[in-house]
Design goal:
alpha/beta; Rossmann fold; 6-stranded parallel beta sheet; 8 helices; 6 strands; disordered N terminus
Length: 222
């Protein structure tokens, strides 16, 4: 995994934002999810993390980093690497149905699936809830919370587009991993930060999204 995704930063404990559920699935672009988790850690946010087996496979393929299958082991590793306070990060198994994420009475009202496969997109759009990840997303939707999905697929079939439209009508934000180039990026990390910054904007992480990439109009011409 790139060194830039492991940087540590002090956290302002007095300004902790509301908790958020983050999910990683098997779409290409695991660095989007890693960078998002890092930024949330730096922002003092409590994170409930879910990931699929396919996400582990993609992480090893794209970063060379083997993510432990045991939730406790992965939680300890991420807390150490990203400077998460132990009480601010919780990793769950795919079938951990007693997790607070499975019920509207205790689940966070904000969730980001980043990156999001089109298979996960379809399952959430259809309220399948076959895994805790799918159930957590369904809970956020039914409770009228904030669900952000970051699909990474191309081209998109008619079925993919229909599922995105369904989620949009349900109130979800469909935020494709399609970075802009007006800020003249020179490194891959700048493209990743562009998307992560937009996610942070929608989560209401004041100032954090803005600090990752210039906004339109902030880039001088010439």
């Amino acid at each position: 995994m790139a060194e830039s995704f492991l940087a540590q930063s002090a956290v302002d404990e007095s300004a902790a934002p509301p908790p958020v559920t983050v999910a990683w699935t098997g779409a290409s672009g695991i660095d989007y999810g890693l960078r998002l988790l890092q930024c949330l850690a730096q922002g003092g946010c409590t994170v409930h993390l879910l990931l699929s087996d396919a996400a582990r496979a993609v992480a090893e393929c794209e970063t060379g980093w083997r993510l432990p299958a045991a939730p406790a082991a992965l939680q300890a590793l991420l807390a150490e690497q990203l400077a998460f306070a132990e009480e601010r990060l919780r990793v769950y198994a795919a079938d951990e149905w007693t997790a607070p994420l499975a019920s509207g009475s205790s689940a966070p009202r904000r969730m980001v699936i980043c990156p999001c496969t089109v298979g996960t997109l379809a399952a959430v759009a259809g309220s399948h809830s076959n895994t805790l990840l799918e159930r957590a997303a369904d809970v956020v939707l039914k409770e009228r919370g904030q669900l952000i999905v970051v699909p990474r697929e191309t081209p998109l079939s008619t079925t993919h587009l229909e599922h995105m439209l369904t989620l949009s009508r349900l109130g979800a934000v469909v935020l494709p991993a399609a970075p802009g180039f007006y800020h003249r990026p020179q490194r891959v990390e700048e493209l990743i930060d562009f998307i992560v910054g937009r996610v942070l904007d929608h989560l209401g992480m004041v100032g954090m999204g803005h600090s990752l990439a210039p906004r339109w109009g902030d880039t001088p011409p010439g």
